[in-house]
Design goal:
Layout: E1 12-15, E2 18-24, E3 33-40, E4 55-61, E5 63-68, E6 71-76, E7 80-83, E8 90-92, E9 99-106
Antiparallel strand pairs: 1-2, 2-3, 3-9, 4-7, 4-9, 5-6, 5-8
């Protein structure tokens, strides 16, 4: 079992204003999934992209917009988002504080 504070995981700068931490991954013995914590500064967004796997998101704090093929949906603390495989998507922080969320994806080999 691994128990830690997510802030003890090295941050990776994805883009200006976007930090990712891989808090649980294959290095921890997790053979199927990777759990990541993203922090998006006000006015910033994750890259707009798609991939052949699904992922699930749980918003910890802040507010923003999830943009997908069906348009924009407001998200805030306690929102959950399911992004199906191959859907083009991104997350935009349109609030005044950090948008922090957990994102779980399958390990892709």
């Amino acid at each position: 079992m691994k128990v830690s504070n997510y802030r003890d995981t090295k941050p990776i700068q994805e883009l200006p204003g976007v930090v990712k931490r891989e808090v649980i991954n294959a290095d921890d013995g997790a053979p199927h999934f990777c759990m990541r914590v993203f922090e998006v500064e006000p006015g910033s967004s994750t890259p707009s992209h798609s991939h052949p796997w699904e992922h699930e998101v749980f918003v910890l704090s802040g507010r923003g917009v999830a943009i997908g093929e069906q348009g924009e949906t407001q998200i805030a603390k306690d929102s959950v988002v399911f992004v199906p495989p191959d859907e083009h998507h991104c997350f935009v922080n349109n609030g005044n504080e950090i948008l922090r969320f957990i994102c779980v994806i399958p390990l892709v080999t």
